[in-house]
Description:
Distance between the termini: 53 Å
CATH topology of the largest domain: Dihydrodipicolinate Reductase, domain 2
Order of helices and strands: EHEHEHEHEHEHEHHEEEEEEEHHE
Structural class: alpha/beta
Number of domains: 2
Amino acid sequence: MSPRVGIISVAHMHALSYANALNTLGVGVAGVYDTDAARGAEMAERFGTRFFDELDTLLAEGLDAVIVCSENAKHRVHVEAAAGRVPHILCEKPIATTVEDAQAMIDVCKAAGSKLQIAFPVRFAPPVQRLKDLLKSGTLGRLISAKCTNHGRMPGGWFIDKEKAGGGAVIDHTVHVMDVLRWALGTEVTEVYAEVGHGLLHDTEIDDAGMLSFSLENGMYGTLDTSWSRPENYAIWGDVTLEILGERGLVRVDAFKQTLTLTSAPAHKTEWVGWGSDADLGLVQDFLEMIQTGREPSITGEDGLKALEVALAAYRSADIQKPVSLRTQEAA
């Protein structure tokens, strides 16, 4: 029997992608809850399921799992509501907007016996998986540095509301890249220095660009260029790139290079359309595998917390204009 998976909020655009993935994998969506009735009902109708205007009612449906796609600041309350009532929870990144909320989510799921997985789909991009294998093989020898980017379009809406999002481009994009680095390199970030720009690219008070320099426990150093710098008419939403330098060579990875160039009259522009692998599909497939096999999450709440800590350290560094230790979140 296929697991019954509900969606808690469709505030985040990934909710649509995850719902499509569930359909592709023959599972479907068991129900949708959202505080925005019009938005939630539209999503439910699109996927042929029921809309719930009360979270408790959805959670009483005997679900095997839920996917939380609410605003970042609501992740804690939604995960806490599901813990103990639903055995498997997939939560959109970042795990939360504060370390305290992230730790509370981890603790409540452990206490209630619910398995918490964090949505870091970049791990499932084939170029990134190949990078991990290459690094594990030792082909590059001693690793020296990492040069990374994560550029995207300015999403607008609640993403530019600091209270709901926890920050702008820096928190939105840093967590993806830092999770990939931690996972691929098997090491932790120890120190961060950051310059963060507010309203540099868009008419908004929230940060829309940032440059991070960081040190890793294994002796590497690195940089991350993170921004909402892609205009609406750009050919693709953005990028995730990593350039790893070792004593024996250099490897460059573009996580979303699998594209076709499409010039379309209805779109009034030329676009790069993805083909082949689908990282979101890979993430959802991995989550369903966890449900069906009973194994532990491949991306844990602790992984989400570690990635969040780097983003928060970047903001702290920009505020005090000094490097920040990940151990103390204070000047190094």
